[in-house]
C-alpha cells in the first residue's frame, strides 16, 4: 500500500473533533486534483507498506482510534485497505475514514465515513452512491459563493443538515481566521454545523501534529 505518514494526534476537524487518534494517511488521489489541496505531499510522497507493517507501526501508540485518510484512501480498498480494515476491526480498533468519495465508498457498517465532496470548477466530484454510504459530510468553504453552492448541493441531494459540517478553507492560521466569521454566520443562519481546523489554528503550517 502507498502510505504517506502515520502519526498520533487529536482529530482536528469534523464530527470527531478533539478525539485522540492514530492517523494513517494513504498516498495518491484521483484526478482532477483540487487546486486548494492541503495534503498535496500525499499525492506523490509515500512509501510502500503491507497491512501488517501498518498495523505494527500504528500499534506503537497507546490509542485504538484509527483515522484513515489521504490522499484518497478508498483508491486502495482492493486489496490492501480492505485487509487492513479487517485486521484493525478484529483487534478492536475504532475506525473512521476521511474521503472525497472520488474513488467510491465501500458499504461499511463497522466504521465512520466522513465524506468531503469536492467542487472543482463548478462540478461536484462525487457519485450519488457514495453520498448514500457516508455517515456525515464535511465541506470546505472559500467564500460566500462556495457556501451557497454547498447549500444547494445539500438541498438537491437531500442531505440531513445535522450531518453536515462546514469548515473554512485555509492552509494557514491567517487564512482560517479570515474566513471563520463568514462560515460561522452562514452556519448560524442556515442551520449547519461549523467545524474549525484545530491543528491549523494551533500549529499553523506544521505537519504531523
Ligand atoms: S480529494 Fe483531497 S487529497 Fe485529493 S486532491 Fe482533493 S484535497 Fe487533495
Secondary-structure map:
Elements: E1 2-10, E2 20-26, H1 41-44, E3 47-48, H2 51-58, E4 65-69, H3 77-90, E5 94-99, E6 112-115, E7 119-120, E8 123-124, H4 128-132, E9 136-141, H5 144-156, E10 164-168, H6 173-190, E11 193-194, H7 198-203
Parallel strand pairs: 2-4, 4-5, 5-6, 6-9, 9-10, 10-11
Antiparallel strand pairs: 1-2, 1-3, 7-8
Helix pairs in contact: 2-3
The chain binds iron/sulfur cluster.
What report would you give on this structure?
This protein has a single domain, classed as Aldolase class I (TIM Barrel). It is 33% helix and 24% strand. It contains 7 helices and 11 strands. The protein has a 9-stranded mixed β-sheet. A two-stranded antiparallel ribbon has the order 7-8. α3 (77-90) links the parallel β4 and β5 (94-99). The longest helix is centred in the C-terminal third of the chain and has 18 residues, at 173-190. The protein is globular, with a radius of gyration of 16 Å. The two termini are 23 Å apart. Iron/sulfur cluster binds next to loops.
What would CATH call the architecture?
Answer: Alpha-Beta Barrel
Distance between the termini: 23 Å
Order of strands, widest sheet: 3-1-2-4-5-6-9-10-11
Give the strand content. 15-25%
Task: Determine the CATH topology.
Answer: TIM Barrel
